[in-house]
Design a protein that fits this description.
Elements lengths: L1 E3 L6 E4 L2 E4 H25 L15 H17 L11 H25 L7 H27 L5 E6 L3 H12 L6 E7 L20 H8 L3 E4 L11 H9 L3 E4 H9 L9 H6 L7 H37 L4 E7 L5 E7 L24 H8 L7 H6 L4 E3 L6 H10 L12 E3 L1 H5 L6 H17 L2 H17 L5
Parallel strand pairs: 4-5, 4-6, 6-7, 10-11
Antiparallel strand pairs: 1-2, 2-3, 8-9
Helix pairs in contact: 1-2, 1-4, 2-3, 3-4, 10-11
Subcellular location: Membrane
Pfam families: Bac_transf (PF02397), CoA_binding_3 (PF13727)
GO molecular function: phosphotransferase activity, for other substituted phosphate groups
Length: about 475
């Protein structure tokens, strides 16, 4: 199901997951560039040698479409369409070069498996050069438009208290984020000032006139108490009737960051809100997806698993695998299977410990396989056994679950679905090794529990490739 978000920022909602208009425009432009690059490259390769052309230009569409699809997926796998991607030329080149290599390798395999699509290595090499140039020019144009604010959505925040301060904290955390601009904050009576006074907008006769003065298309509600005479319900209704989107801060962070903020949750919201699809149809589709994806991954990675097992055996001896109790769906425990990456006496004191950066308990082989997430591959058997899903919240140990359930509200909600080998929190946040990290990751896990779908699972799998290739978040 594809919907366009009404008013405010132009977003496309696909099965409850929002895709920004900037991303849609960028993908559309680069699809056009890649198609043109393929036709142009083929034409240049056989320029003046029409009799050597292995096929007519009109029959190029299938192979050109295949090339374009492979390249778009390769760039997506390198995180080039994520909202937090820094669109400067240096970072673009850093990710575009491995994307091109990955695309070249996949296209070579396609030519081998499907000879009817073969177009020659010379043609492919020339097309890759043209595609690289075209993508760089496209990205430079989008960077220019972004710096001019042409593609930005503008919003005003109603409130100046602690909930409003979250927007300032987010701007400090991610100052390069583009596509959305907070114009300023509107004060309400009896609220303590928690945002910079310079960000507070001047008082005017009405809310709609303030919105029109600054060209805002959205008002975000960021106040704790919404009852009583101080809440401007009539002004907000007037804005909404004039086409201005009015959004709760929790809905804003869910839409823009893919998080559900723990401090904004209420039991009634969990009960009456949308999402949280646990139907038999969704469960059946997810199980079928788990079996297919796990089977494919097992075949592809089996040689890697054999080499990893031999390396562990040579460096540190047996055991090769490590079994550990984890909490799964419904709070039931199971034994997760992993390649052993630490010394056999890593927890000889008997007390579980968070893994730390440069953990001294990790072996040399362990450091490599943890960085590349190879240590997680044996969990394929947990998925095939039905204890885990391919995509879902990462399973945690009972010791930490008991601790987090007492300190973090709604932590148990993540146990309403099966845990996964990879998940939304893993591709969006990275490794967690503290209570603060656990809270941050929970906010992503809650988003997945609420909005999980086959479409979101595919996005997570594509983003996981970037995590593995670039070694993001491993310890």
């Amino acid at each position: 199901m594809v919907n366009k978000a009404p008013g405010g920022p132009k977003l496309f909602r696909i099965y409850n997951h929002y895709i920004s208009r900037t991303t849609v425009l960028l993908i559309s432009a680069e699809v056009f560039v890649l198609m043109v690059a393929f036709y142009l490259g083929t034409g240049l390769r056989f320029f003046g040698e029409i009799e050597l052309l292995p096929f007519s230009l009109s029959s190029l569409f299938p192979v050109a479409s295949t090339f374009t699809s492979v390249m778009i997926l390769s760039m997506a796998a390198m995180g080039m369409y994520q909202l937090d991607f820094r669109p400067d030329i240096k970072d673009t080149l850093f990710r575009l070069m491995p994307s091109m290599l990955l695309g070249f390798g996949i296209m070579t395999l396609v030519f081998y498996l499907l000879p009817d699509l073969y177009s020659g290595r010379g043609v492919l090499g020339l097309v890759m050069v043209l595609a690289l140039s075209g993508i760089l020019l496209t990205r430079a144009a989008f960077l220019k438009w972004s710096s001019l604010g042409i593609l930005e959505s503008r919003a005003i925040v109603l409130g100046i208290g602690n909930k409003a301060k979250e927007f300032i904290d987010q701007i400090k955390k991610d100052p390069h984020r583009r596509g959305f601009k907070i114009i300023g904050f509107i004060p309400l009576p009896d609220e303590d000032l928690r945002v910079p006074s310079s960000a507070v907008l001047p008082k005017v006769e009405s809310l709609i006139s303030l919105v029109n003065r600054y060209g805002a298309r959205e008002i975000i509600i960021a106040i704790q108490e919404r009852r009583g005479g101080c809440f401007p319900i009539q002004d907000l209704l007037e804005c909404k009737l004039n086409g201005i989107k009015v959004t709760d801060s929790a809905a804003f962070f869910e839409r823009e960051l893919g998080q559900i903020r723990v401090n904004s949750l209420y039991p009634s919201w969990l009960v009456f809100g949308g999402g949280f699809d646990q139907s038999l149809l969704r469960s059946g589709i997810k199980r079928a997806f788990d079996l297919i994806a796990s089977g494919i991954l097992l075949v592809i990675t089996f040689p890697v698993m054999i080499i990893t097992a031999l390396c562990i055996l040579i460096e540190d001896g047996a055991p090769i695998f490590y079994r550990q109790e984890r909490v799964g769906k419904g709070g039931r425990t199971f034994m997760v299977l992993k390649f052993r990456s630490m010394r056999d006496d890593a927890e000889k004191g008997g007390k579980p410990q968070w893994a730390a950066a440069d953990d001294p308990r990790t072996t040399r082989v362990g450091r490599i396989i943890r960085k590349l997430r190879i240590d997680e591959l044996p969990q394929i058997f947990n998925v095939l056994n039905g204890e885990m899903s391919f995509v879902g919240p990462r399973p945690e140990r009972p010791y930490f679950v008991n601790q987090l359930c007492t300190e973090v509200p709604y932590y148990n909600v993540r146990h309403s679905i099966k845990p996964g080998i990879t998940g939304w929190a893993q591709v969006r946040y990275g490794y967690g090794a503290s209570l603060e990290d656990a809270i941050e990751k929970l906010q992503y896990d809650l988003y997945y529990v609420k909005n999980h779908s086959l479409f979101l699972d595919v996005i997570i799998l594509i983003d996981t490739i970037e995590v593995v290739v670039l070694g993001k978040g491993g310890r």
